[in-house]
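Propose amino acids for all 173 sites.
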């Protein structure tokens, strides 16, 4: 029965096993992040923007759908890792919430358009950003900007984002 202690124990055990399976999948396939000058932004499960500083090559691989950003559920916290698209697809099959960004041809995961990104940044800056529900299937993140955003400190926190299309405007499908 939902709500009973036995049900809660079973759900807890199921979540622990899922986290373990996801963690093993990430650890077995993660790609080391190569620190670089390209800022790649994505959104966490809680609706907060996070940034990875990557090489232009790794950012391009994310934009091209060769890599994905996924959660790695460590026992004390959730970290984010880069994994090949095949591993991200496996994780997506186990838990849609675990994949934070994956540029799939027909169904991209984690995109925001420019207006959504600017609204999110403004809300975070003002401290009024709503936390997203863990159950929301439409949780999004945005594509990265292809250029480094280091020309001014204010710009470092104001990325340009892409809609689900490539930087040059060509479609990805």
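Proposal:
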């Amino acid at each position: 029965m939902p709500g009973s202690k036995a049900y809660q124990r079973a759900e807890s055990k199921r979540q622990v096993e899922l986290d373990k399976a996801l963690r093993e999948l990430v650890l077995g396939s993660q790609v080391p992040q190569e620190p670089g000058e390209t800022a790649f932004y994505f959104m966490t499960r809680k609706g907060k923007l996070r940034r990875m500083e990557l090489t232009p090559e790794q950012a391009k691989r994310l934009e091209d759908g060769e890599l994905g950003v996924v959660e790695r559920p460590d026992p004390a916290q959730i970290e984010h890792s880069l994994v090949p698209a095949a591993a991200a697809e496996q994780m997506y099959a186990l838990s849609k919430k675990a994949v934070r960004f994956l540029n799939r041809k027909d169904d991209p995961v984690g995109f925001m358009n420019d207006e959504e990104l600017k609204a999110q940044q403004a809300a975070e800056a003002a401290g009024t950003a709503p936390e997203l529900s863990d159950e929301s299937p439409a949780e999004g993140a945005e594509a990265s900007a292809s250029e480094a955003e280091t020309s001014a400190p204010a710009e470092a926190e104001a990325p340009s984002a892409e809609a689900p299309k490539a930087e040059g405007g060509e479609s990805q499908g």
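The chain has one domain: 5-128+139-145. The two ends are 45 Å apart (CA to CA).
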